[in-house]
């Protein structure tokens, strides 16, 4: 696994644990020599995870839609910044450049990116691991909603295999590597 796309908030949230987890994820990505691919912002959890990767001599690619400029504050210290026309092109570019995906706590944009990524996996567009860094049980309500959709017959249980969940960044990355190495066995 050479690169992981991280979806997360451009805000930090109200709990310190979110920022701590973002920074710890940045350290883990650097330790594992995994390049970070993300939305390019210098603010919120996005800024914290990217700054930590850079601080620990890692590589970071930021993908920024031109539509967000000048309101977005891009991180000026990235290894590489790619400007794209719109949000759809951003998601496609992040997916193309990544070997896996991790969602940290975030808002509507994080959910949109996460659900697109899960849907693409379900459709067979990619076979990359998708991880939820479940900081402070942030994703528990989402996981219950998905489970309810399965129970009510809207999602096939088979689709749940696409999500790897952990509260620990190191454990999540290890599980993603295991998933990646066995992905050819998954249909």
Characterize the overall form: globular
Strand % is 15-25%
The major β-sheet equals: 7 strands, parallel
The pLDDT mean sits at 92
**How far apart lie the N and C ends?**
20 Å
Number of domains: 1
State the secondary-structure class: alpha/beta
Q: Can you tell me the CATH architecture?
A: 3-Layer(aba) Sandwich
Rg (CA only):
16 Å
SSE string, helices as H and strands as E: EHEHEEHEHEHEH
CATH class, named Alpha Beta
CATH topology: Rossmann fold
Binned, the helix content reads: 40-55%
Output the strand order for the largest sheet: 4-3-2-1-5-6-7
Question: Low-confidence stretches at least 5 residues in length (pLDDT < 50)?
Answer: none
Number of strands: 7
Total of DSSP H or I helical runs spanning 4+ residues: 6
Organism: Clostridium lapidicellarium
InterPro entries: LOG (IPR005269), LOG_fam (IPR031100)
Pfam families: Lysine_decarbox (PF03641)
Keywords: Cytokinin biosynthesis, Hydrolase
Describe, in short, the structure shown:
The chain is of the alpha/beta class.
Tell me what the structure shows.
This protein is an alpha/beta fold and 187 residues long. The protein has one domain (3-181): Rossmann fold, CATH 3.40.50.450. The protein has six helices and seven strands. The protein has helices spanning 16-31, 44-55, 87-97, 108-122, 140-151, 169-182; strands spanning 3-7, 35-38, 60-65, 80-84, 100-103, 130-133, 163-166. The protein has a seven-stranded parallel beta sheet with strand order 4-3-2-1-5-6-7, sandwiched between helices. Helix 1 (16-31) links the parallel strand 1 (3-7) and strand 2. Its EC number is 3.2.2.n1. It is an enzyme of class 3 (hydrolase).
């Amino acid at each position: 696994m050479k690169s992981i796309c991280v979806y997360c908030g451009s805000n930090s949230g109200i709990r310190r644990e979110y920022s701590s987890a973002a920074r710890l994820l940045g350290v883990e990505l650097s330790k594992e020599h995994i390049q970070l691919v993300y939305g390019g912002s210098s603010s919120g959890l996005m800024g914290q995870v990217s700054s930590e990767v850079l601080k620990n001599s890692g590589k970071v690619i930021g993908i920024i839609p031109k539509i967000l400029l000048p309101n977005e504050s891009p991180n000026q210290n990235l290894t590489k910044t790619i400007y794209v026309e719109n949000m759809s092109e951003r998601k496609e570019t992040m997916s193309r450049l990544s070997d896996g995906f991790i969602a940290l706590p975030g808002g509507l944009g994080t959910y949109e990116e996460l659900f697109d990524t899960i849907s693409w996996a379900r459709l067979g567009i990619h076979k990359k691991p998708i991880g939820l860094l479940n900081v402070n049980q942030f994703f528990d309500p989402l996981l219950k909603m998905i489970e309810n959709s399965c129970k009510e017959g809207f999602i096939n249980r088979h689709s749940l295999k696409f999500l790897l969940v952990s509260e620990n960044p190191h454990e999540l990355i290890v599980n993603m590597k295991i998933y990646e190495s066995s992905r050819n066995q998954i249909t």
